[in-house]
Structures
1.
Amino acid sequence: MAKVTALTVNGKKLTVNVDSQTSLLSVLRNDLDLTGTKYGCGEAQCGACTVLIDGQQTRSCVTPVGKVANKQITTIEGLEKDGQLHPVQEAFLKADAMQCGYCTPGMIMSSVALLSKTPQPTREQIVRHMDRNVCRCGTYLRIVAAIQMASGQKGGAE
Amino acid sequence: MKDLPEVERYELTEDPFYNFTFDRRQFLKVFSTGIVLLVPMSRLLAQEEQGFDRELPKDIGAWIHVDQDGSVVVYTGKVEFGQNIRTSLSQAVAEELHVPLQTVRLVMGDTDLTPFDLGTFGSRTTPTMAPQLRKAAAAAREMLIALAAQQWQVPPDTVRIVDARFVNHDQSKSMTLADVAKGQKLVKTISPDVKTTPVDQWTLAGKSIPKVDGRDYVTGRHKYTSDMRRDGMLYGAVVRPPKVNMTVDPAGPGVAEVKGIQLVRDGNFFGLAASDQPTATSVAKSITTPWETSPDPQPDNATLVDYFRKNAREGRGRPVGSVADGFAAADKTLEQTYNVDYIAHAPLEPRAAIAEFVDNKLTVWTGTQRPFGVRGELAEALHVPASRIRVIVPDTGSGYGGKHSGECAIEAARLAMATKKPVKVVWTREEEFTWAYFRPAGVIDVKTGVKNDGKITAWEFHNYNSGSSGIQIKYDIANQNIQFHDTKSPLRQGSYRGLAATANHFAREVHMDELAALVKMDPVEFRLKNIKDERLRAVLDAAVTRFNWNRKSSTMRGFGVACGFEKGGYIATCAEVSIEARTGKVKLERIVEAFECGAIVNPVHLENQVEGAVVQAIGGALFESIQFVNGSILNPRFKNYRLPRFSDVPPIEIVLVNRKDLPSAGAGETPIVGLAPAVSNAIFAVTGKRLRSLPLAPNGLKT
């Protein structure tokens, strides 16, 4: 089986030694100890494993690592820069857009992808884009508010 | 009084629960200096101060440690699952100690460091743990002030704590917590009459404080159990039978060795450990071994109701008045049956555990709502004394009542003991759906009598299997016969957010709507006619006022209402629905929910909990249902078990009724119970169709 020996994650070139068919999620979590990306279902249904591949939101649980060997991978750990949170991270805190927090990294990565393409999304655009991410604690309305807040629009928790 | 669980917490009755006292040696290991305040859970309290080397009182609920460096650490056996008690308990302690929130740290759910706790469930943390910790913090403050006064040789009533510093009467002298705690070795058991800050003087509690460690979550830094690793750790997996009514045949022939894999067989357990997760999972899936099948008949969704009725035992509820008289006095009677399906908790973090067996001591990290209960389960299953087992619960990816049990912890521990290495087991989503436990299904028969003026004269209510939580009524009815009938369940079942209160409110509140229609009264007016309880009237009034109830349902929009009471909280929910003409899909247009749980501790987190409960309730109300036949779970994946998503959530308006004059009750559960009946009643209002089974419309309304 073909091997993957290097990955670019959060701007850094990292050495690995894994079968190309292994899921990106498994490599991030088990080989690189980047555990902010979560396992939720293993079949691209819940979005807990969402990362950015060349800026595009991607379900890492169904992405063979061989497919992303030459691409820019961004995980939740890569959003904070020099101790400064990304505006979406700030907004999630401000809007209290989490309870147990397990879906939060995936939600934030999906939100970042949305805002990079559509900086001022309507409520409908947000809902349509985020609909494949699951928050079992039910904080959806707060997440919508957080995205609106991060996009500089009115919104957020009262 | 012991904080006992409700009878219907099935999994708690499966094995004895243990109450090992924290021993003195352990205590000395944790605390060597500073001041410790013990919080007894029983009413009998010793009050004297003592040194660290004295015998500890029994039945300690929590303790607060003010160390020499001025740090304040609270130790509680409660655990954080997203209900934000790490924040609310910190608020309570910081408030009483008069220190900033960041001075306070909580150590939670660690059986070696925290006192025994039955578990985090039943919405008990806010009404029981928070007031106890408040008292401890208030006692700590008094004690520290006395010590400071002693040092300054001034009367204690001239010393105050302002922003974590002690100051004298004119603030000419000041010192820190560390200055006072230094060199101390004091233990005090708090007395029950310690005065705490009255609610109207709260400055920190009662405020919307963000999650104390929120930054760790938005950066992905927080380590859930499933994220942790230990040096030399192996990845475990369990060989699972294809059906829930099967187990591994212990007498089955051996399985050929697999290179690089350690197979572990013990009785009906068959597990393995590998050096990486994908290998462990795929090898476990590929192994076939003979299974033993339970001889019990296996009903399916279609035959479940008959099965419940056939195996039912007599209820033990005590009738009130005489329902026979009540029916005789009635102008009209109504008899209906309501059903609820099994549903899954589906916590987004599946069960996970890491076990390590070193020097004859077993340490297990796992996300359970009952760390001490799971320690007991481990002791029993592995024949290791509980004194040599430590269970640690990292803040966990939710539970909703679904993580009371220790299956995964036992599996990891068995593998760790066999391989002599740390082993991590993380259940797959399919395992979580198949081998955990479900919210019980149930069937409920209701028969009532009513006068033409709307007064209910007789209330007969029989719940089969789903449970007794929330079965009692707040309506003012003279003649009642309310029974919960224990029966057999083909699927493993246990606690769930709100327990049976959801099923019982569903049956009751849909039935109330049917009665209102029978006597041609407005559903709100009809309820008010039968409510004396002022708190219930107040939340119902708050909800319908915000909802603007005085509009007529039309063929386009239906309005429905439901109200109730459970675990110290009062709730009223109004729903507005429409039906998509082409697909028959039920669309929620707007939800208003009023909730009252005494004095509010943290408004934003309370609102978040209520909102979350409403959203979770949408799933159980409209489409969540476990499908099963002959021992097979047919929809054990997110692909075919539908969860509420962004597009399912309408605008939700929460009306919080703050009763500062009443003690705070928990809020994690009760807000879930009102939605399903309110939606069913709204569907009736718009279509004339009465839906009496949950889920109401998994495939939309087909006409």
2.
Amino acid sequence: MLYSFIILYSPIIGKPWRERVFTLGEQGVKDEGLHDDVSGGEMKLSREEVKHLALLARLGLSEAETERFREQLSNILENFETLQQVDTTDVEPTAHSIALENVLRDDEPAPSLLAGEVLANAPSQEEDHFKVRAVLE
Amino acid sequence: MDLFRLTIHEASELLRRQELSSLELTQAVLDHIREVEGKVRAFVTITEDLALQQAKAADQRIRKRETAPLAGIPALIKDNICTKGVRTTCGSRMLENFIPPYDATVMEKLKACGIVMVGKANMDEFAMGSSTEHSAFSPTHNPWDLSRVPGGSSGGSAAAVAADEAVYALGSDTGGSIRQPAGFCNVVGLKPTYGKVSRYGLVAFASSLDQIGPLTKDATDCALVMNAIIGYDSRDSTSLPHPVPDYTRVLIPDLHGLRLGVPQEYFVSGMQKEVEEVMNSAIAKLEELGAKIDWGVSLPHTPYALAAYYIIAPSEASANLARYDGVKYGFSVQDAESMWDAMEKTKQFGFGSEVKRRIMLGTYALSAGYYDAYYLKAQKVRTLIRQEFDQAFERLDALVTPTSPTVPFRIGEKVDDPLQMYLSDVCTLPINIAGIPAISLPAGFVDGLPVGMQVIGKPLSEEMLLRIAFAYEQATDWHKRKPEI
């Protein structure tokens, strides 16, 4: 029979909760150590990290999506830890499977799309230009 | 005779002899689409008027004896391949109303051959998925069992060819997106060597892995479509400048002198027992045809391909999909407080959940502090996987594996469990990581559901793969079986 005791505490007020896990097994009580940020269960990613990633990607997320992605991405990333088992000492990374170098072409004039064709799918346009919101406000 | 059941080479012969017109053939296919499409849902857009117009033009060319093998043959194009003047949605709300101002290179080539395009194929949004359930519009149903998925992401292309809604289709393959649905739907699907087919005009998902290829009713048709779409293109800087062979010349029904390997890592623990049995008899058939089989091949880094792939592909996707900012084209939220707010809302409401998940995953793997541990590590594992294949091909002509570890799963079964969904690509994605070619062919059935056999070759060995596919097909009749819809 295996029992787990979890002690929750917040070392500094305002910082995420931490937990200390003890398991009681046939060998007696075993200290499993400290785990960071358990405010929503033990996961690889915190809510704050998920929100920060979404900001980096300029991707809006609802609260429900933030929580769901936190769980799913944590689970996926934990599974991908297996990659760390591979010995890659002295292995060069591969960016492209077929190595081609210095792909150049002659700089010759060729037909290109007309402004009207390029703008035909634009959500907002004015005088042959894409219309965007003010970047500096 | 049901005209819509014809293969390319059968129809082409009748057209050449003027015993059939493209208009008759196209009309028969369009009528059949009307009959079964309500159940299969393989199309995002049906281009009936365009098809009839192109059929008439093809008939004129054929009458003047200006014939190409694909002239006048009705085809379906995956909806991430740009078609000038015909909307190209990528299975996404983001591009629901996007009408490309130009044709992809493959479309230019097929138009020069006299294509009759009957429509644009349904797909997982931005080609991210293994079931076509991630289409923003509707899931596609497997013609062999409508309660099951057709695979993905080229599920619409595969289901349509299986259901005879098109004589052939184009798909794209980033981690198995041509081969896995081909296997699930009992059709032939080929992912060419990276760089063999131009990616110009293919909506980018993971640029170092993406490749366009054919889905067809048999190996001969696959060779004919390959002949039409391959070749160097200066508009794709990763396009290979190698000579272009005639793939139909290698189709001989004999495998004597070939050495085929069966890598044990592809017969994994999660594999369905019945799929393994089908594979064993398929491999025995290859042996009967004269091939020497090496059952003891080992590719020990195979188990790491899944993690490497799901770091590399989302990383590239997160960069490629940054362009959907609601400014130049596509869905755009105008009602917002600021530029950043508009951009965030555009992506929030324009993308579906699998696309968002992968953008998040890729952003994580590329972000400061995690780059070395994830992205760089995955790129190094990629090197090891490629080296392992190269070593195997020093003494073997091709490798034989199942295309997928299971038969088609039920709609809804894996949609909420991304990791389980990712596992259905476990046999196909190492091939994209290595940039080598592979073909999936019909290899048998388990309780009426198709099983695909994957044949993997060294770079530029498409001729070898088509020869093996052709020989196997001549000795079996799995590819001739048709679903009752």
